[in-house]
Each structure stands twice: as C-alpha cells, then as structure tokens.
Design goal:
Blueprint: H1 27-46, H2 50-64, E1 70-76, E2 83-89, E3 99-100, H3 105-113, E4 117-120, H4 122-128, H5 134-143, E5 152-160, E6 163-172, H6 182-201
Antiparallel strand pairs: 1-2, 1-6, 2-3, 4-5, 5-6
Helix pairs in contact: 1-2, 1-6, 2-6
Length: about 200
C-alpha cells in the first residue's frame, strides 16, 4: 500500500522524553491499557480507512492516558514538507489550520528529533510554542481558548521502519494535580507505532 505522506529522515537515537520518572501503574490500570492497545492493534489490522485509523488512535489515547483530554494527529505532506493535521479530538476546529515546519511546536519537535517529549505545566506548553509562526499561533490559540487551554501536553513521533511519518500529540485541559508521566509517554509511543503501521497499510 502507499502512504499518504512521504517518509522523512531516519530516527536519530532512542525515543525518550522529559518525564517525572518511570512510575509503576496499578495492575488493573495497566491491564486495561494493554487490553485497549490490543483492541486498537486488532482493529487496525482490518481497518484500511486512513480517517478512521487516525480517529480511533486519538480516541484510544484519550481513553487510556488518564491526564489526556484532547489529541491531534499530524502527518507529513510530501509535497510541502510540512506537517498537516490529519485529525483532532477535543480542540476547536481552527486546529486543522496548523501547518508545521519540522521542529515547530510539540509535534514538529517530535517529528524532527524522532523523540517523544512531555510538557507538564502551562509554562512548558508555552515554551513548546516558541518559534511558531504567527499564523500557527493564532490558529492554536483559537482552538485552545477558554476551557480548551492546555495545562500540559505530550508528543510522540509516528515511526515506521526508521522513517518518521508524522506525530501524535495529546493535551491535558482540566485543572488538577494529574500530569503526564513516563509510563504515559511509553503508552503514547506504543499507540504512535500502531498508528504508523496502520497508516502505511491504508
């Protein structure tokens, strides 16, 4: 099958991230997460529609990562060389106007480096937006205003056989002490890997 996005450069180094340290999950919660991941993997094995694959990955990420309330999946456009929004859940419609350069914002950083990263706290989220174009900042702010304002974010690259196809980003919108941890990043990376396989087969 043909991917809708041209493969980018090879992944540099091992995927990692800035987390709060690896923490063990309660057995029941971890089992629920693994069960959901298995369900998504089986679904993608038979699902050939790119739109449905993207949507199910986002819904699953929000469902199994406790702090996640919204998510966006970006794919590389082989013509423009930029990341475009394939699908988004939980944010305003203007999020689809974003077109990111590799290295721009959380998704662009994950794509460029081939590494996942955690941005806990609004200061870290604002820092991830540093260097974004005026048009992308405006679209992002319109999509995340009010109750949609992210309190934290987390990203992971979509990697297939060493090539980065895009990026997956989830956001925390609710107030509260819950933040993204290293175990959440590992789970997001698993989902991103499943998404990459499904996208290549679409």
């Amino acid at each position: 099958s043909r991917s809708p996005a041209a493969p980018a450069g090879k992944v540099a180094g091992k995927v990692g991230g800035k987390g709060t340290g690896k923490a063990s999950l309660p057995t029941a919660e971890r089992l629920a997460q693994l069960t959901r991941l298995l369900h998504v993997t089986r679904m993608l094995a038979s699902e050939l529609d790119l739109a449905e694959i993207s949507h199910q990955i986002l819904v699953s990420a929000i469902e199994v990562i406790p702090a996640a309330d919204a998510g966006t999946l970006y794919l590389l456009d082989g013509v423009t060389g930029k990341l475009h929004v394939q699908d988004s859940v939980g944010l305003g419609p203007s999020i689809r106007e974003l077109t990111l350069e590799p290295g721009e914002c959380a998704a662009g950083r994950a794509f460029f480096s081939g590494r996942g990263e955690i941005y806990n706290g609004q200061e870290a989220v604002v820092g991830a937006l540093a260097g974004a174009s005026a048009a992308n900042l405006l679209a992002f702010r319109d999509a995340t205003q009010g109750l949609r304002s992210p309190k934290a974010a987390m990203s992971a690259p979509l990697v297939f056989k060493g090539n980065v196809l895009g990026a997956l980003v989830v956001d925390k919108l609710r107030d509260g002490v819950a933040e993204f941890g290293q175990h959440d990043l590992l789970l997001l990376e698993d989902l991103a890997q499943v998404a990459a396989i499904g996208i290549m087969n679409a």
